Amino acid sequence: MPSGNPKKRRPRIALSILLILLALPSVRALGEPRTVKVGVFPASPLVIVEGDRPNGLFVDLVDEFARELDWKVEYVRGTWGPLLEMLRRGEIDLLPAVGYTEARTKIYDFSSRSVFIDSGVVFTRRGTAIHTIFDLEGKSIAGLRDSTFTAAFAQFIASFDIKCDIILVEDNASVMRKIADGEAFAGVCIYSLGSELARSFPVAITPISFSPIGLEFAVPKGRNSDLITGIDRIMAGMFDDPLSPYSKSFEKWITGREPVKLPLWLWVSVAVVLSLGLLLAVVAMILRHEVKKKTENLRAEIEQRKESEERLTRSLHENETLLHELYHRTKNTLQLIRSFITLEALELEPSGDIDRLVRKTEDRIDAISMVHGMLYRSRDLSRIAIREYVQDLMELLLAGAAPGEGQVAVDLAVDDLKLLLDTAIPLGLIINELVTNSIKHAFPEGRKGRIFLGLAAEGECRISLDYRDDGIGVPEDFDLRGQKTLGIRLILKIAETQLKGAASIERGSGLRYMIRIPTNLYEARV
């Protein structure tokens, strides 16, 4: 039997009930979803802001985070520059598809892994020929304000000592509009979005690309650490799983094929075929059994292939896969450009000057394409084995120049070095120009000769290129720096301006180039 006075216990019971009632709103508040303001801007197919609701690769991931982490997402639409500033001030909580740079880490916190790796490219009007970066000298170039790629392009042209008038605009569509309206000779845009916009504007992509960069999620510095923590936790297992939401969204937006739009005449033809097919229904009944058997065999084969592909996919890291794909596409694009040049030349009146120009252009493209092909086959995505590269390049140049059999002998003395992509490509262009000049000018009328190419390390941060031929040489008054040919200009521009090195020439029984370049101008990106 309870002890104590019941009248004294009643106030205590009432006070307890009141405290429980007052706590109920707080308990409900604990279960309410977290409101997250997410900025979105036009960056198809990564972020698509058309229609009532945003879409794209990054938006699919935000939806997945909202389900897993109990977010209530509020999308804030805008353009790139203002949204980036709103993120810095904390007016929005999260911004997708932000390029990771060391400078931005002082202002924003980033997710731990890149969702997509993209690069900057140059677009121009259709029908406008741009062969090299030097074609942009003195031209007006449109670029997105506050964009990492616009800043990277400015540094890129500065490395070649090229001056351009950069016109800043608020969104990437305005970049294409400036090109289409003739207000800009060319424009800078991220590859993924630029390829989409090129379908709506009379613009074309050029061979000039630069600055690959990882795109990630970003939050204001020192704020919303719980958002980044949740994102990193959920995405940790997505990249190696071919059935994860990330892999499915990547397939949908990045590697999926667009539906083909069939012309009206084809629809009519299909209708006629279907009508005739009704007459063949009896024959189809007889063949159905065979078709069924073959279909079952085909399905079994497809399932086996799917299982094999899934096992292979799990063994790869997502970043390596994306970079391999980038190098592969770059090599294929260069070869496609090479084919276009050759086909266009066939349409022109035969001319020795045109043939030489096409041949030189093909050799330069091959020198660049070969680097990307080696990187695509290599496990090291930043450096290539320069000895193998030089051997392959020399074989290609001698075969393409088609001298007489045994006319030109080659001696190579190349150290076993690994060079960064940013150094290997310019070096390959220099070697291309030197060998081409020797074959063309040093051994006239079937004269036999010898080429020596030495490449050696000088300390930890410098290499020397020693190139010699025993051809007819040059006159005593030959001025290396006074030559107006593109080949000599390229050698000097690349060696002294882009690679910050030094070039000299010696006369004698033939011709000798000495070029010394530093190897610490660039850092590995991978």
Describe the structure in your own words.
Strands 3, 4, 5, 6, 7, 8 and 9 form a 7-stranded mixed β-sheet that branches. A 5-stranded mixed β-sheet has the order 11-13-14-16-15, covered by helices on one side. It is an alpha/beta fold and 526 residues long. The chain has 3 domains: 122 residues, Periplasmic binding protein-like II (D-Maltodextrin-Binding Protein, domain 2, 3-Layer(aba) Sandwich), CATH 3.40.190; 97 residues, D-Maltodextrin-Binding Protein, domain 2 (3-Layer(aba) Sandwich), CATH 3.40.190.10; 201 residues, 2-Layer Sandwich (Heat Shock Protein 90). 48% of the residues lie in helices and 21% in strands. The longest helix has 34 residues. It has 15 helices and 16 strands. It is globular, with a radius of gyration of 31 Å.
Number of E-type strands: 16
Helix content: 40-55%
- In angstroms, what separates the terminal alpha carbons? 78 Å
CATH topology of the largest domain, by name, is: Heat Shock Protein 90
What structural class is derived from the secondary structure elements? Answer: alpha/beta
Largest beta-sheet details: 7 strands, mixed
Q: What ranges have pLDDT less than 50 throughout 5 or more consecutive residues?
A: 17-29
CATH class of the largest domain: Alpha Beta
Q: Which CATH architecture of the largest domain?
A: 2-Layer Sandwich
How many domains? The number is 3
The backbone outline, from C-alpha atoms, is globular
Question: For the record, what is the CATH homologous superfamily label of the largest domain?
Answer: Histidine kinase-like ATPase, C-terminal domain
Number of helices: 15
